[in-house]
Structure formats: C-alpha cells, structure tokens
Amino acid sequence: MTGTKDTNKTPPSVDLQAARDTARVLNEALPYLQRYSGETIVIKYGGNAMTDEHLKRCFAQNIVTLKHVGINPVVVHGGGPQIADMLDRLSIKSEFLDGMRVTDAATMEVVEMVLGGVVNKSIVSLLNQVGGKAVGLTGKDADLILANPLHLPNREADALGFVGQVNQIKTGVVRKLQDQHFIPVIAPIGTDASGASYNINADLVASAVASALKATRLLLLTNTPGILDKQGELLTGITPTQIASLIADGTIQGGMLPKVQCALDAVQAGVGSVQIIDGRVEHAVLLELFTDQGVGTLIKDDTPDQENV
Predict the structure, then answer these.
(1) Whole-prediction pTM
(2) Domain presence at residue 56
(3) pLDDT tens per residue, range 198-230
(4) Distance between CA 42 and CA 274 in Å, rounded?
(5) How many CB atoms lie within 10 A of CB 282?
(6) Contact yes or no for 192/16 (Cβ under 8 A)
(7) Looking at the domain assignment, is residue 20 inside a domain?
(8) Which of 7, 8, 20, 47 is the S-S candidate for 223 at Cβ 3.0 to 4.6 Å?
C-alpha cells in the first residue's frame, strides 16, 4: 500500500562491543574528571610530540579537551631542534658548555624569534584550529618570567651569555587569561630589570610556573617511557626518597637528571604530583590524566596527604 511507512526495515548495524568500550572509557574517566575540575595543570610540551604532525594534532586536541571539561591547562613549550635548524640556516655556529647552548646576543635574537614567534604561534594556531582559545606569551609579557643569568661552576660568570634561570614568576597575566577561558601558551624566554632577554630551559620554566600557580599536576612530555629501573623496566610511581636512591646508585643519570630535578623542585614547592610521560604515545596527556594505567612515571611527595593525588 503506497504511503505506508515500512516498519520492518532492518535497523542499522551497531558495533555493540565498540560502544561498550567507549562507555567503559568514559566511566573510567569520571572520577578523574571530577578530581581535576577547576584545577590548573601545567604541561611542558617538547620532544617528538612537537615535530610529528599526527602527534602535534593529538596533543592540541588533548589540551582543548581539558579546557572543555573544566580543567585549566597551561602549556610551556621548548624548541631546541627548531632553534638549531634556524641557526644552521643563518650560518650561526653553536657552541655548548656542559650540554647548554652558549647564547650570545646574535644567538639570543634567533632564540627569541624562533621560540616567541614561530614555535609559540604555531602551537597557538593549532590549538585554535581544533576548537580552543589560546594566547601566546613569552616571559617578557607583563614580566611573567623574571630571570637571572645562569652561572656554571668553575666557569667565567658570563660563559653562557644570555642563558638564564628563573628568579620569579608573576602569575597575574596567566590568571587573567584563565579567568577569560583562554589557554596560555608560554615560551621559555625570561627578562631582567634592564629588559634583556634570556633563554631558559623549558623544564625549569614549567616547574617554576606550576609551583607559582599551585598546580595540581605538572606533566613533562619526553621521548622516553618515563623513569626506568636497572633492568630497563618502567617505574610507574616513585617518591623523592626513592629518587635519591636511584640517583645515588646511578640508575637515574644523564639527560634524565635535570628533568627529575625539575620534578622534585615542583613537588617540594607544593605541586600535587609530577608525571614524566612518553610524548610519542598518541593522546598521552589524556591517557595519563583520565585512565587507571597512565603512560609514564608519577612522582609525588612521601607525606601522607599526597597519597590520593
């Protein structure tokens, strides 16, 4: 009979297992969403997650997701490979002392251009493309990062040039951006009373920013799974006391040492916990924050009131 609705059509197929998996993930995330709602989480962005196009987009989506579920993410980024590439293109030779780039006036101009311009704005743009409202900053904006020259032991005072260390973080501009629902994206360039610019290690800046903002968590994205034991197995949770033992016996060494020290500084300054996570993993930020497994090493204080952080 014409005009009669066919009620016997086969319903569209539904992958019930996939739907159940999605529901399980959302249910698992619920207590974490409740725990971090309204809290500040600082994320140091670096490594492969900054150079691989797919991982870059995953990271941006993760950060915007945090904002949309009521968390206040603050991104601090590095940019060493991009600086090195630009210096090579400009035929400016790099010199290193104790693993740190000597930064003369000409090099500092390039550092500021690359970190505060190219890298910072590309991150801001990507966050905005995936639905966020991001604003880029350097430490010179509103005197966000006040710095001192970094001195190496047994070296001349100006051996590193315009390489700095954090003296003070002025959080006012970051707080105002958070109040207006923006995502602050910070380049690790500091300034002093004379207005000079300083290139500062991004891990140091992230630790100092997290401490000043009294963040609940600090995430450090790396190109490693996290802190490994003597057998090369991942340590998923560790305390400052245990870290001291691992440093003493040589388990933690090399490039991981300064990163771990930044983590310890943040924990001792009152940051709830620090995670050193593998930025090569897709959606590493969400996996660390909203799943029971996580994707790295969690560092928290030994004191009882930190047990549930």
Answers:
(1) 0.90
(2) yes
(3) 999 999 999 999 999 999 999 999 998 999 998
(4) 10
(5) 15
(6) no
(7) no
(8) 47
- What is the C-alpha to C-alpha distance for residues 56 and 39, in angstroms, rounded to an integer? 24
The C-alpha atoms of residue 286 and residue 105 are separated, in whole angstroms, by: 40
- Residue 285 covered by a domain: yes
* Range(s) of the domain holding residue 97: 36-306
Measure CA 177 to chain center. Answer: 18
CATH number for 277: 3.40.1160.10
pLDDT digits (tens, 9 = 90+) for 114-141: 999 999 999 999 999 999 999 999 999 9
Residue 26: inside a domain:
no
- Tell me the two tokens of residue 221: 């994205």
Which residues, in sequence order, are CB contacts of 50 under 8 Å at separation 6+? 56, 77, 78, 79, 81, 119, 279
Altogether, the residues listed in the chain come to a count of: 309
Strand pairing class (217-222; 273-278):
parallel
Q: How far, in Å, CA of 165 to CA of 191, rounded?
A: 10
Domain count within the chain: 1
- Concatenated DSSP letters for 197-248? EEE--HHHHHHHHHHHTT-SEEEEEESSSS-B-TTS-B--EE-HHHHHHHHH
